[in-house]
Amino acid sequence: QVHVVESGGGFVQPGGSLRLSCAASGVIFRDNNMAWYRQAPGMHRELVATITPSKQTLYADTWKGRSTISRDDAGNTVYLQLNSLKPEDTAVYYCNILQYWGKGTPVNVSS
Prior knowledge:
mainly beta, 11 strands, 0% helix, 4-stranded antiparallel beta sheet, globular, 7-stranded mixed beta sheet, single chain
């Protein structure tokens, strides 16, 4: 059985930073692309960043220069560092591997 669990979200002021974590089990983590998405209230889920097994990365335009995705294959964990956060970044952030999704971790950017 596959489990995907995100953590690290919370409340942060504009301009602040957060580091999100995603732990996956029950799947061969090191062989698969990993991705982070976000979904704001009333909006579609959208891509934030992806990372391949060879650690090639891709970022949505709005996140270029403001985020870093990384992976620790030994720990079956993928990370997402979010910097210079804006109120419009408020959303639930989800981790994805293959067809599996976690339940998300909420990020609230507010003064």
